[in-house]
Amino acid sequence: MSVLVTGAAGFVGSALARRLVAAGEEVIGVDSLTDYYDVALKHANLAAIPAAHFTFVNADLNDADLDELLAGVTVVFHEAGQPGVRKSWGRDFADYVDANVLATQRLLEAARRAPDLRRLVYASSSSVYGDAETYPTREVDLPRPLSPYGVTKLAAEQLCTLYAKNFAVPTVSLRYFTVYGPGQRPDMAFNRFIRAALADAPIELYGTGEQVRDFTYVDDIVEANLRAARSEVEPGSVFNVSGGSSTSINEVLDILAGVAGREFRVNRTAAVAGDVRRTGGAADRIREVLGWRPTVDIESGLRAQWDSLSGAGSLAGKA
After folding, report:
1. Annotated catalytic sites, by residue?
2. Is the CATH number of domain 2-177+217-242+280-294 1.10.150.530?
3. Which of 39, 94, 218, 309 is the most buried (most CB within 10 A)?
4. List of the chain residues with pLDDT < 50
């Protein structure tokens, strides 16, 4: 199949592109290389993708010739978007609307015109749930995002569903639950914790650390994308992709301290506006329909991420 990966220089997008190229697929990667974090890290992600079956296009989805990009493409993995809860408040909200909502709507319009397209997989987020009423949270439970970021991810997901129902665009939306592992963005918690610990610097922790998250290893996220692309499912379907860990941030720090063999210094600061107290996704539907289940537990995944940042081996680079 001919594949388009948007956000190909990012954490999940580059891992997905590496897996696809390793399988012999012809992959086009598009990314605007924004400076939300160090662009050098994005270039490093791209450099790690074997060039033989990979073509990179530096472009913004809001400006690119999407008909040309989609010519002959059978599968789109839409990983591009503006990440982060903290920056989504205030004047930066326009960036989230542009990158998460308008770019997705423009891609969906082009997908309507793409004759060869048989699947568009959208990277949604557990942020659409906010503080859910029940745990584990099911796909049919009411979304109640607590941040502008979550609002834009939900809006884009709803657009995917609308284009599926009204125009038969073959979308599948995957609600990622906190992705981690080697290559994680530098602004994300595990990356920040490990880099601080390796430098013997204090770890900055927002809130009490009792926030509970359902962490999902990057290889498992990649596998969910591949299964969504290859399976015959109803257009507009939505699936949780959840690792099943239900681990507090304090417990994460305990696991990392065990990996490091020492205690850490932790500076606790105020909680972030829009940060939910708990996430936990029911994975029954994706298991039954796509045959997907998580394969990497939180202890193994954290050790792999530690090893990756410290220069050791383990599971690092598996995706």
Report:
1. 149
2. no
3. 218
4. 314-319
